[in-house]
């Protein structure tokens, strides 16, 4: 598909069997597609993920999605997210302590460390349940997630495995069933533990608590449990599916993007130095100390935010969006017929030479306000766009800024050999990943005097 898009202009017809796909890379046409109520439904290709995530926010049909999105949106209020800053910072400090065994050594696979950190962050903030995955040597949850990803990816590209009756009679289908059983049981355990905490909350109501701690009780899972208990708007199955969506999709996307950002910082030491200089301005003499990060500190990390955005441009975690066309849609140049599907390849959109000067150059200053104003707003949509955009984008940005700044305050990131972005081999296991492990080495930063 990438080769076809490179060779032909936007609006490419691609037939896979009897299914028509139209690839769109023109920002204005992308806008028309993503804003239309006729393309709210996710593509049929996502059906292979439903045994894992069910009909949660990401995969749910439009009618279900509209109701759940409205109910869940308050969970991602900025005031609530800011109440989790302490958790982001504490788990990031655990990350740098766990990475300390790699000091002065050879390059190591950084994704494993980051994935564990992100999972602990997600459990404690979005779920409201503490987690200690970082300090364990082995994580059955992460192992099960990887296995499920592998089986889904394999099934997608082997047409003879598409029918359920065939897939579930194979060893691959049996393996997926076993892993999903574990993951769903894990989610059920999280829900049960949270219910117990909420039931016991009345015993703690006389203890001293801040406004932030009160807000934290309105986290993702808290809201869903309250709704399922009081208004019965969520069935038990819907409750689990939304939790699975947050645990599965939220964890993988944040871990992948943060790992690519670490690679870019190691690969471009001059950009890493600018990030560290910014941190020195924010924290002063305490830049290398374990000082509490505040919301004002996060807001001042402007250059680091641009680094994250540039990373998301080159390595969008969801490299391809697919939407079903539920009714004929006139987008100006043509009419997209009912029953077809639209492909929006973000990785191509974000690397188009006519939209981005020197598209393979890593340049965070592309996201200075003046530069952003020059571009079409739909030329950069790493978290999708329109009414069905990613609800957790602010959560991801805040957690990544704290994670990356904590790492940079402790360590210098290095690569033995600089890599060219255009030479990187990428694949999509539901989300974008590097074919080869992302490896960096770390050195301890000198304490400022």
UniProtKB/TrEMBL annotation:
Q: Where is the protein situated, by its record's location annotation?
A: Endoplasmic reticulum membrane; Microsome membrane
**Cofactor(s) the protein needs:** heme
Binding residues for heme, per the UniProt record? 390
Q: Which GO terms describe its molecular function?
A: heme binding; iron ion binding; monooxygenase activity; oxidoreductase activity, acting on paired donors, with incorporation or reduction of molecular oxygen
Top-level lineage group: Eukaryota
Q: Which GO terms describe its cellular component?
A: endoplasmic reticulum membrane
A Pfam family found in this protein is p450
Q: Which SUPFAM superfamilies match?
A: Cytochrome P450
Q: Which PROSITE patterns match?
A: CYTOCHROME_P450
Q: Provide this UniProt record's keywords sorted from A to Z.
A: Endoplasmic reticulum, Heme, Iron, Membrane, Metal-binding, Microsome, Monooxygenase, Oxidoreductase
Q: Does the keyword Phosphoprotein apply?
A: no
As for membrane topology, the entry says: Peripheral membrane protein
| Family to which this protein belongs | Belongs to the cytochrome P450 family.
Its function, per the record, reads:
May be involved in the metabolism of insect hormones and in the breakdown of synthetic insecticides.
Q: What is this protein called?
A: Cytochrome P450
């Amino acid at each position: 598909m990438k080769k076809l898009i490179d060779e032909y202009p936007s609006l490419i017809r691609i037939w896979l069997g009897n299914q028509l796909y139209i690839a769109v890379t023109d920002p204005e046409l992308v806008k028309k597609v993503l804003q239309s109520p006729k393309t709210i439904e996710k593509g049929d290709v996502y059906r292979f993920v439903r045994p894992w995530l069910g009909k949660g926010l990401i995969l749910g049909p439009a009618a279900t999605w509209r109701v759940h999105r409205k109910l869940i949106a308050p969970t991602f209020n900025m005031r609530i997210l800011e109440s989790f800053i302490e958790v982001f910072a504490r788990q990031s400090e655990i990350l740098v302590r766990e990475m300390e065994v790699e000091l002065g050594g050879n390059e190591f696979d950084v994704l494993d460390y980051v994935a564990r950190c992100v999972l602990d962050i997600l459990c404690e903030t979005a779920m409201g349940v503490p987690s200690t995955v970082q300090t364990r040597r082995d994580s059955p949850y992460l192992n099960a997630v990887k296995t499920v990803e592998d089986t889904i990816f394999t099934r997608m590209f082997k047409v003879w495995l598409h029918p359920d009756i065939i897939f579930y009679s194979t060893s691959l289908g049996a393996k997926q069933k076993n892993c999903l059983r574990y993951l769903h049981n894990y989610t059920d355990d999280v829900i049960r533990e949270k219910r117990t905490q909420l039931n016991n909350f009345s015993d703690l109501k006389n203890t001293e608590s801040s406004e932030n701690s009160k807000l934290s009780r309105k986290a993702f899972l808290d809201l869903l449990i309250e709704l399922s208990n009081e208004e019965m708007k969520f069935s038990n199955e819907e409750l689990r599916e939304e939790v699975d969506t947050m645990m599965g999709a939220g964890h993988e996307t944040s871990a992948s993007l943060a790992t690519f950002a670490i690679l870019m910082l190691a690969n471009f030491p001059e950009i890493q130095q600018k990030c560290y200089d910014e941190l020195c301005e924010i924290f002063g003499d305490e830049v290398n100390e374990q000082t509490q990060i505040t919301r004002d500190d996060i807001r001042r990390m402007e250059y680091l935010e641009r680094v994250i955005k540039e990373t998301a441009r080159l390595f969008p975690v969801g490299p391809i969006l697919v939407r079903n066309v539920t009714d004929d849609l006139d987008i100006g140049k043509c009419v997209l017929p009912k029953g077809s599907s639209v492909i929006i390849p973000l990785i191509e959109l974000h690397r188009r030479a006519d939209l981005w000067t020197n598209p393979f150059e890593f340049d965070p200053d592309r996201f200075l306000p003046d530069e952003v104003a020059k571009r079409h707003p739909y030329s950069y949509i790493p978290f999708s766009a329109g009414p069905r955009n990613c609800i957790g984008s602010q959560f991801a940005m805040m957690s990544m800024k704290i994670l990356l700044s904590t790492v940079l305050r402790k360590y210098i990131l290095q690569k033995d050999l600089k890599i060219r972005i255009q030479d990187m081999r990428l694949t999509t296991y539901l989300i974008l990943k590097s074919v080869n492990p992302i490896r960096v080495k770390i050195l301890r930063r000198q304490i400022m005097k």
